[in-house]
Protein backbone atom coordinates (compact mmCIF):
# COMPACT_ATOMS: atom_id res chain seq x y z
CA UNK A 1 0.00 0.00 0.00
CA UNK A 2 1.33 3.42 -0.99
CA UNK A 3 0.37 6.76 0.46
CA UNK A 4 -0.34 9.68 -1.86
CA UNK A 5 -0.98 13.39 -1.38
CA UNK A 6 -3.00 14.75 -4.31
CA UNK A 7 -4.09 18.34 -4.86
CA UNK A 8 -6.99 19.29 -7.11
CA UNK A 9 -8.77 16.01 -6.40
CA UNK A 10 -12.33 17.21 -6.93
CA UNK A 11 -12.55 16.52 -10.67
CA UNK A 12 -10.66 15.61 -13.82
CA UNK A 13 -7.40 13.68 -13.64
CA UNK A 14 -7.06 14.29 -9.88
CA UNK A 15 -10.45 12.76 -9.11
CA UNK A 16 -9.86 9.78 -11.40
CA UNK A 17 -6.47 9.20 -9.83
CA UNK A 18 -7.99 9.17 -6.34
CA UNK A 19 -10.67 6.70 -7.39
CA UNK A 20 -8.16 4.39 -9.07
CA UNK A 21 -5.67 4.42 -6.20
CA UNK A 22 -8.32 3.84 -3.55
CA UNK A 23 -9.81 0.98 -5.55
CA UNK A 24 -6.45 -0.79 -5.62
CA UNK A 25 -5.97 -0.39 -1.87
CA UNK A 26 -3.75 2.67 -1.51
CA UNK A 27 -4.18 5.52 0.96
CA UNK A 28 -4.90 9.03 -0.34
CA UNK A 29 -4.71 12.47 1.25
CA UNK A 30 -6.77 14.58 -1.13
CA UNK A 31 -7.06 18.35 -1.19
CA UNK A 32 -10.10 20.09 -2.67
CA UNK A 33 -11.70 23.51 -2.41
CA UNK A 34 -15.06 22.00 -1.40
CA UNK A 35 -14.85 19.03 0.96
CA UNK A 36 -18.35 17.82 0.08
CA UNK A 37 -17.38 16.80 -3.47
CA UNK A 38 -15.57 13.74 -2.08
CA UNK A 39 -18.23 12.68 0.43
CA UNK A 40 -19.22 9.76 -1.79
CA UNK A 41 -15.67 8.38 -1.90
CA UNK A 42 -15.21 8.92 1.84
CA UNK A 43 -18.33 6.85 2.51
CA UNK A 44 -16.88 3.98 0.50
CA UNK A 45 -13.24 4.03 1.57
CA UNK A 46 -13.35 5.41 5.11
CA UNK A 47 -10.02 6.26 6.68
CA UNK A 48 -8.01 5.40 3.56
CA UNK A 49 -9.22 8.72 2.14
CA UNK A 50 -8.38 11.83 4.12
CA UNK A 51 -9.87 15.03 2.66
CA UNK A 52 -8.59 18.51 3.35
CA UNK A 53 -9.64 21.91 2.03
CA UNK A 54 -6.93 23.78 0.13
CA UNK A 55 -6.92 26.59 -2.42
CA UNK A 56 -3.44 26.82 -3.95
CA UNK A 57 -3.96 30.49 -4.73
CA UNK A 58 -3.86 31.11 -0.96
CA UNK A 59 -0.15 30.47 -0.49
CA UNK A 60 -0.13 30.89 3.30
CA UNK A 61 -2.38 27.83 3.71
CA UNK A 62 -0.20 25.42 1.74
CA UNK A 63 2.58 24.70 4.21
CA UNK A 64 0.24 24.00 7.19
CA UNK A 65 -1.84 21.67 5.01
CA UNK A 66 1.21 19.69 3.89
CA UNK A 67 2.59 19.55 7.44
CA UNK A 68 -0.72 18.20 8.73
CA UNK A 69 -0.86 15.52 6.03
CA UNK A 70 2.66 14.26 6.77
CA UNK A 71 2.01 14.36 10.52
CA UNK A 72 -1.10 12.21 10.13
CA UNK A 73 0.33 9.88 7.48
CA UNK A 74 3.72 9.34 9.06
CA UNK A 75 5.22 9.18 5.58
CA UNK A 76 3.98 9.94 2.08
CA UNK A 77 5.38 8.13 -0.93
CA UNK A 78 4.16 10.38 -3.75
CA UNK A 79 3.07 14.01 -3.76
CA UNK A 80 0.93 14.89 -6.78
CA UNK A 81 0.77 18.59 -7.60
CA UNK A 82 -2.31 18.53 -9.81
CA UNK A 83 -4.48 21.54 -8.91
CA UNK A 84 -4.67 24.07 -11.72
CA UNK A 85 -6.68 26.95 -13.12
CA UNK A 86 -7.21 27.54 -16.83
CA UNK A 87 -7.31 31.07 -18.25
CA UNK A 88 -8.23 31.73 -21.88
CA UNK A 89 -7.89 34.89 -23.92
CA UNK A 90 -5.39 37.00 -25.82
CA UNK A 91 -2.92 38.69 -23.47
CA UNK A 92 -4.49 42.10 -24.07
CA UNK A 93 -7.94 40.73 -23.23
CA UNK A 94 -6.99 39.45 -19.78
CA UNK A 95 -7.63 41.40 -16.58
CA UNK A 96 -5.02 41.94 -13.89
CA UNK A 97 -7.13 39.87 -11.50
CA UNK A 98 -7.22 36.94 -13.91
CA UNK A 99 -3.47 37.10 -14.45
CA UNK A 100 -2.76 37.21 -10.73
CA UNK A 101 -5.03 34.22 -10.07
CA UNK A 102 -3.42 32.23 -12.89
CA UNK A 103 0.10 32.77 -11.58
CA UNK A 104 -0.88 32.30 -7.93
CA UNK A 105 -2.55 28.95 -8.57
CA UNK A 106 -0.50 27.25 -11.27
CA UNK A 107 2.96 28.63 -10.58
CA UNK A 108 3.35 30.10 -7.10
CA UNK A 109 0.98 27.55 -5.56
CA UNK A 110 2.76 24.60 -7.18
CA UNK A 111 6.16 25.97 -6.16
CA UNK A 112 5.07 26.41 -2.55
CA UNK A 113 3.53 22.92 -2.45
CA UNK A 114 6.80 21.39 -3.62
CA UNK A 115 8.85 23.50 -1.22
CA UNK A 116 6.59 22.47 1.66
CA UNK A 117 6.90 18.76 0.83
CA UNK A 118 10.67 18.59 0.31
CA UNK A 119 11.76 18.76 4.00
CA UNK A 120 9.47 15.86 4.89
CA UNK A 121 10.56 13.75 1.93
CA UNK A 122 14.19 14.49 2.74
CA UNK A 123 13.75 13.54 6.40
CA UNK A 124 11.99 10.28 5.54
CA UNK A 125 14.79 9.29 3.16
CA UNK A 126 13.19 10.02 -0.19
CA UNK A 127 9.99 10.15 -2.16
CA UNK A 128 8.54 11.24 -5.46
CA UNK A 129 6.85 14.44 -6.61
CA UNK A 130 4.57 14.29 -9.63
CA UNK A 131 3.95 17.71 -11.13
CA UNK A 132 1.04 17.75 -13.55
CA UNK A 133 2.11 20.15 -16.27
CA UNK A 134 0.77 20.04 -19.82
CA UNK A 135 1.92 19.83 -23.41
CA UNK A 136 1.55 23.56 -22.83
CA UNK A 137 4.74 23.39 -20.78
CA UNK A 138 6.70 22.92 -24.00
CA UNK A 139 4.47 24.32 -26.76
CA UNK A 140 2.24 27.37 -27.00
CA UNK A 141 -1.22 28.12 -28.37
CA UNK A 142 -2.62 31.62 -28.84
CA UNK A 143 -5.10 32.61 -26.12
CA UNK A 144 -3.23 30.59 -23.48
CA UNK A 145 -0.27 32.91 -22.93
CA UNK A 146 -0.60 33.14 -19.15
CA UNK A 147 -1.39 29.44 -18.79
CA UNK A 148 1.78 28.70 -20.78
CA UNK A 149 3.77 31.14 -18.66
CA UNK A 150 2.87 29.11 -15.56
CA UNK A 151 3.47 25.71 -17.14
CA UNK A 152 6.79 26.65 -18.75
CA UNK A 153 7.70 28.24 -15.43
CA UNK A 154 6.91 25.22 -13.27
CA UNK A 155 8.83 22.94 -15.64
CA UNK A 156 11.92 25.14 -15.30
CA UNK A 157 11.50 25.13 -11.52
CA UNK A 158 11.28 21.34 -11.42
CA UNK A 159 14.30 20.94 -13.72
CA UNK A 160 16.40 22.92 -11.24
CA UNK A 161 15.02 21.54 -7.98
CA UNK A 162 15.37 17.91 -9.05
CA UNK A 163 19.13 18.49 -9.25
CA UNK A 164 19.13 20.04 -5.77
CA UNK A 165 17.34 17.15 -4.05
CA UNK A 166 18.45 14.10 -6.03
CA UNK A 167 21.06 13.28 -3.37
CA UNK A 168 18.23 12.89 -0.84
CA UNK A 169 16.43 10.24 -2.85
CA UNK A 170 13.73 12.63 -4.07
CA UNK A 171 12.81 12.48 -7.74
CA UNK A 172 10.31 14.23 -10.01
CA UNK A 173 7.90 13.34 -12.77
CA UNK A 174 6.48 16.02 -15.09
CA UNK A 175 3.19 14.91 -16.65
CA UNK A 176 2.38 16.58 -19.98
CA UNK A 177 -1.13 15.72 -21.18
CA UNK A 178 -2.46 17.08 -24.43
CA UNK A 179 -6.11 18.14 -24.78
CA UNK A 180 -7.99 15.52 -22.74
CA UNK A 181 -11.67 14.79 -22.22
CA UNK A 182 -12.07 16.16 -18.69
CA UNK A 183 -14.06 19.14 -17.44
CA UNK A 184 -11.01 21.40 -17.74
CA UNK A 185 -12.51 23.14 -20.77
CA UNK A 186 -15.80 23.73 -18.99
CA UNK A 187 -13.90 25.34 -16.11
CA UNK A 188 -11.90 27.74 -18.28
CA UNK A 189 -12.00 31.37 -17.22
CA UNK A 190 -12.65 33.02 -20.59
CA UNK A 191 -11.80 36.67 -21.03
CA UNK A 192 -14.15 38.98 -22.90
CA UNK A 193 -13.21 39.13 -26.57
CA UNK A 194 -11.87 42.28 -28.18
CA UNK A 195 -13.17 42.78 -31.76
CA UNK A 196 -9.64 43.61 -32.95
CA UNK A 197 -8.60 39.98 -32.48
CA UNK A 198 -11.50 38.41 -34.39
CA UNK A 199 -9.51 37.60 -37.55
CA UNK A 200 -6.20 36.79 -35.82
CA UNK A 201 -4.84 33.43 -34.70
CA UNK A 202 -6.30 34.18 -31.26
CA UNK A 203 -9.74 34.88 -32.69
CA UNK A 204 -9.72 31.77 -34.84
CA UNK A 205 -8.80 29.53 -31.91
CA UNK A 206 -11.50 31.18 -29.78
CA UNK A 207 -14.07 30.44 -32.51
CA UNK A 208 -12.93 26.81 -32.77
CA UNK A 209 -13.13 26.33 -29.03
CA UNK A 210 -16.54 27.97 -28.73
CA UNK A 211 -17.98 25.97 -31.64
CA UNK A 212 -16.65 22.63 -30.45
CA UNK A 213 -14.39 22.23 -33.48
CA UNK A 214 -11.24 22.10 -31.33
CA UNK A 215 -10.18 18.45 -31.41
CA UNK A 216 -9.74 16.64 -28.08
CA UNK A 217 -8.21 13.20 -28.47
CA UNK A 218 -6.98 12.40 -24.95
CA UNK A 219 -8.74 9.78 -22.83
CA UNK A 220 -8.70 10.73 -19.14
CA UNK A 221 -8.77 7.16 -17.78
CA UNK A 222 -5.90 6.09 -20.03
CA UNK A 223 -3.93 9.14 -18.95
CA UNK A 224 -4.43 8.29 -15.28
CA UNK A 225 -3.41 4.67 -15.88
CA UNK A 226 -0.18 5.87 -17.50
CA UNK A 227 0.46 8.39 -14.71
CA UNK A 228 0.10 5.77 -11.98
CA UNK A 229 2.26 3.28 -13.88
CA UNK A 230 5.00 5.90 -14.23
CA UNK A 231 4.73 6.84 -10.55
CA UNK A 232 5.03 3.16 -9.60
CA UNK A 233 8.11 2.61 -11.78
CA UNK A 234 11.51 2.23 -10.15
CA UNK A 235 13.04 4.81 -12.52
CA UNK A 236 10.35 6.92 -14.19
CA UNK A 237 11.11 9.36 -17.01
CA UNK A 238 11.35 13.01 -16.08
CA UNK A 239 8.67 13.87 -18.63
CA UNK A 240 5.56 11.87 -19.48
CA UNK A 241 3.73 13.17 -22.58
CA UNK A 242 0.18 11.83 -22.79
CA UNK A 243 -1.87 11.64 -25.96
CA UNK A 244 -0.91 11.75 -29.62
CA UNK A 245 -1.58 15.48 -29.79
CA UNK A 246 0.89 16.14 -26.98
CA UNK A 247 3.56 13.90 -28.50
CA UNK A 248 3.24 15.30 -32.02
CA UNK A 249 3.15 18.93 -30.90
CA UNK A 250 6.08 18.59 -28.51
CA UNK A 251 8.16 16.71 -31.07
CA UNK A 252 7.49 19.35 -33.74
CA UNK A 253 8.29 22.20 -31.33
CA UNK A 254 11.55 20.63 -30.18
CA UNK A 255 12.68 20.00 -33.75
CA UNK A 256 11.86 23.58 -34.71
CA UNK A 257 13.72 25.01 -31.73
CA UNK A 258 16.74 22.79 -32.33
CA UNK A 259 16.87 23.83 -35.97
CA UNK A 260 16.61 27.50 -35.02
CA UNK A 261 19.29 27.09 -32.35
CA UNK A 262 21.73 25.38 -34.69
CA UNK A 263 21.32 28.24 -37.19
CA UNK A 264 22.55 30.60 -34.47
CA UNK A 265 25.66 28.61 -33.51
CA UNK A 266 28.18 30.92 -35.17
CA UNK A 267 26.52 34.00 -33.68
CA UNK A 268 26.45 32.42 -30.21
CA UNK A 269 30.09 31.33 -30.31
CA UNK A 270 31.04 34.75 -31.67
CA UNK A 271 29.84 36.34 -28.42
CA UNK A 272 32.54 34.57 -26.36
CA UNK A 273 35.51 36.49 -24.95
CA UNK A 274 38.66 36.10 -26.98
CA UNK A 275 41.49 34.41 -25.13
CA UNK A 276 44.83 36.20 -24.98
TrEMBL record:
Which residue spans traverse the membrane? none
Top-rank taxon, per record = Bacteria
The UniProt keyword set, sorted, is: Oxidoreductase
What's one Pfam family the UniProt record gives for this protein?
adh_short
Family the entry assigns: Belongs to the short-chain dehydrogenases/reductases (SDR) family.
NCBIfam families attached here?
PRK06482.1
Protein's UniProt name: SDR family oxidoreductase
Biological classification of the source = Bacteria, Pseudomonadati, Pseudomonadota, Gammaproteobacteria, Enterobacterales
